[in-house]
Amino acid sequence: MATAQGQGGKDLEQLAGLTVPVRLSGPLDGMKYKVDYRAVAGDLAKSRVGGQVKEGVEKQKDRIEDKVRDRLKGLLGK
Question: How far apart are the first and last CA of the chain?
Fold first, then answer.
């Protein structure tokens, strides 16, 4: 299992259950997406490990975007 531990980050398990709001726009054949990091940050501030997870999300931002892109491709069959 891949972890961020080697880069000084927290284990990915600590991000389990975290909701990442995504805004979709455009036609189905040209769908665009945007991760709503402001909403993620707000939710994290309310959580019991908010500060630690927020750092993890910021460090993993590119990886999270890649995973969202891959999942959307699978969902939309593209």
Answer: 26
Would you say 25 and 32 are in contact if contact means Cβ atoms under 8 Å apart? yes
pTM: 0.38
Q: Per-residue pLDDT tens for 12-49?
A: 666 667 778 888 999 988 889 898 888 877 776 676 56
Positive or negative torsion for Cα 55, 58, 61, 63: negative
C-alpha 64/C-alpha 52 separation (Å) is 16
Q: Choose among 57, 66, 45: nearest CA to 14.
A: 57
- Per domain, the residue ranges of the chain are 19-76
Q: Which H/E stretch holds residue 39? A: helix 37-46
